[in-house]
Amino acid sequence: MASFLNDLFGNALNITLPMVVMWCIGALLIYLAIKKDMEPTLLLPMGFGAILVNLPMSGAVTQVVDGAREIGVIDVLFDAGIANELFPLLLFIGIGAMIDFGPLLQNPKLMLFGAAAQFGIFFTLGMASLLGFELKDAASIAIIGAADGPTAIFVANFFDSNYLGAIIVAAYSYMALVPIVQPPVIRLLTTPEERRIRMPYEQKRVSKTTRILFPILITMITGIVSPRSVALIGFLMFGNLLRECGVLDSLSDTAQKVLANLITLFLGITIAARMQASAFLNPQTLLILGLGLVAFVMDTAGGVLFAKLLNLFSRRKINPMIGAAGISAFPMSARVVHKLGLAEDNQNFLLMHSIGVNVSGQIASVIAGGLILNFFG
Known about the structure:
By secondary structure, the protein is an all-alpha fold. The protein has 20 helices and two strands.
């Protein structure tokens, strides 16, 4: 009987304080997903996975037992879907199928705001390097500012970053925190008068031919300018082509719903392979979370300040808040800008303008990731 009880409960003696801390972090992610509705499709499996891999002698991760190496299922999923960048790329097909580039095609100059809002990536790259991170880790950390989880995973994994778990958690956490992080930055950089600037939306017809050619041409142009980003931008635009071609509606629906949900589910729980206490709980993790916030704030600021700069030379004033939607967090950032506009003036409808900027930020963040791969890969 004593032997049976020892076998049954002896493993409890292997529980350590770092494991308990990771359980708390996992519980926090689950709470944010359920109670606060912050990216629940990702944060909930991430939180549960963090608990799963930090149980003592967890069979979910690879471990050595009595001299024999036992392969854990989460490590199998990681090697099959993240180590080779498969999951992020497949997820991009679903994201591309969800995006309507119509508002951007109606006003192509909005692409400039998407480019300006990537400033935080390169600012944080320099900052992380000055703080002593290896260049590959600094580049991976900087991509957090894109507010684009799949791109962050792709870049950090390509560089084989030492802090992949912390980078992924920071990237997706800040995506979920867009409604909390962005408004204070926007208010700080704009006046009430600027926030009340109205931008009438002139709806122009975008031909089906244009919608079909757009993803093809963007892929080709990006492939020439930034070859390393071809896989990222290509899968994103392929998903959009499924949406716009008009003959593959069933595949488009599958990509938007079944594929995107399934990959997000696997992605969330697989990320936990890099959330074991021994690798996750260190001072660098806190520093990465701080640098990720800096990147996020500077991206927001870059878009807003660029819009204010254009207003110095433009007769038709631009509401500078739309510049903040140039990050890749689609469509959360666009909604934040729209709500801020309505809060200042209940007749100020900025949604379509901010959506146009937001989808341009989706493209720009992928190109920025590709450029970093080109420069430092």
